[in-house]
Amino acid sequence: DNSFYCISICSNKCMGENKEVVESPSLDFTFNKKETCKPVCTKTYDTKKPEDKQKLDFLKKSMLLNYQHHWIVDNMPVTWCYDVEDGQRFCNPGFPIGCYITEDGRPKDACVINVRLTNDILIALLVKQLSFCVFSSHSYKHTHPDSPDCSGVPMDISNKANGEVKIAYTYSVSFQEEKNIRWASRWDYILESMPHTHIKWFSIMNSLVIVLFLSGMVAMIMLRTLHKDIARYNQMDSTEDAQEEFGWKLVHGDIFRPPRKGMLLSVFLGSGTQILIMTFVTLFFACLGFLSPANRGALMTCAVVLWVLLGTPAGYVAARFYKSFGGEKWKTNVLLTSFLCPGIVFADFFIMNLILWGEGSSAAIPFGTLVAILALWFCISVPLTFIGAYFGFKKNAIEHPVRTNQIPRQIPEQSFYTKPLPGIIMGGILPFGCIFIQLFFILNSIWSHQMYYMFGFLFLVFIILVITCSEATILLCYFHLCAEVRNIHQYSYLVLL
């Protein structure tokens, strides 16, 4: 995408790339008044001048790269609808600047080609209030650019254009009353043209199969394996070998030994709790329709506000775990919870924003927005984190069900699959299998400039993902305990991560 003005269309001001701020164009029309071939501007390029030739070359290159216009009327995206295979109609919130075509009129990305420019737009407003807004793009070679007539042959820009090239831009507007569409469902014609819903049901079924498989494994361990193990451990015989301990019971006196990196682990647990609750609440509101595409920017705003307000549970969880690990540097713990993870994210964000600033891109976040984000972080999130940590440290430390041995037990030699890295990889494969289809739809919507709206599916997949991660962690932790691995704190966290 590129700004309407950056490719020198009806303005010399370049707004940069991927413009997110809504700009008011110079298109004026009156409600219920039909406009036909109304001129917007005429651009003149003298190919003998290096500056004009560069602008014209960039205009042609933007068509080759499929740069798009994105317009909004009454908070509704102006859509370009066209028929695709199987008799379906596809609506895209945007239309191309132009297209490359061969000399016989067929669109083709080739080397010896001409360029056909979109320089006339027909905007059709279907009104009951404003039900929806569609448009069709045309290309006309106006004989007299000062008094355009939208009935000529298409406007072509030859790759060998020499001399002066004049391009007149026009638009037309028509109004049509639509009685069958309600205001609440005016977005349906866009959303219903998205990829088929039955594929998403396939992703849900795929995720449920994985969850059922893991649930069966966990149930088998809990109801069968552990039951037999406990019965065997509690068996009272007269022989000396009957009281011999083996398996996971051997490490019961070491399993609650404080981890080596208890400070970092508690900080990551607190930040993870903050992100988990934020994601759950955001998707829940989106599932209820509060964060629909009609509320522009509502999803990101909701996520940021929730993250700021959830500093209290982050500080509380971090403090509780750090105290249970026997930590005494409570000030360091609170400061790291407040600044470590958010600081890493903000540093990456700020560096990328600096690059965008340096390139003059309009995708760069304004300085005022950065100041507002920092104010929310330092003035709201950090104090709330301190409050949560205060209540967490006031609580008694979490009591462990068994006493920890004074002398750590030596860990036996491990097989390949019980080592940390293979276990972490295996623990991530199954959760990824639950979400990869939904992830495909999300990324495809981003890359195809479509609107992702299946928040109900996404919320359900998120719940399945949480269950899958929990069950995979239970399984892998049990297998590692059976292998007499005692460093289970960091391992279980990395599997969940």
Structural account:
The chain is of the alpha+beta class. It has three domains: 35-191, no CATH class; 197-233 and 242-256 and 403-497, no CATH class; 260-399, no CATH class. Helix content is 46%, strand content 14%. It has eleven helices and 13 strands. The longest helix is centred in the middle third of the chain and has 37 residues, at 197-233. The radius of gyration is 31 Å and the shape is elongated. Keywords: Membrane, Signal, Transmembrane, Transmembrane helix. Belongs to the nonaspanin (TM9SF) (TC 9.A.2) family. It comes from Pavo cristatus (Indian peafowl). One of its GO terms (biological process) is protein localization to membrane. It is a multi-pass membrane protein.
What are its keywords?
497 residues; 3-stranded antiparallel β-sheet; single chain; alpha+beta; disordered N terminus; 13 strands; elongated
Radius of gyration: 31 Å
Distance between the termini: 34 Å
The domain tally reads 3
What fraction strand?
5-15%
What does the average pLDDT come to? Answer: 76
- The number of distinct helices, counting runs of at least 4 residues, comes to 11
Strand order of the largest sheet: 1-13-10-11
Envelope shape: elongated
Can you write the helix and strand succession as a string?
EHEEEEEEEEEEEEHHHHHHHHHH
Number of strands: 13
**What's the story with the biggest beta sheet?**
4 strands, mixed
The computed structural class is alpha+beta
Topology (SSEs and partners):
Blueprint: E1 35-46, H1 50-64, E2 68-69, E3 72-73, E4 76-77, E5 80-83, E6 89-92, E7 95-96, E8 98-101, E9 114-117, E10 120-127, E11 132-138, E12 156-158, E13 164-177, H2 188-191, H3 197-233, H4 262-288, H5 298-309, H6 311-324, H7 330-358, H8 367-394, H9 420-447, H10 455-482, H11 488-496
Helix pairs in contact: 3-9, 3-10, 4-5, 4-6, 4-7, 4-10, 5-8, 6-7, 6-8, 7-8, 9-10, 9-11, 10-11
Transmembrane segments: 201-223, 264-291, 297-322, 334-357, 363-393, 424-447, 453-479
InterPro entries: EMP70
Protein name: Transmembrane 9 superfamily member
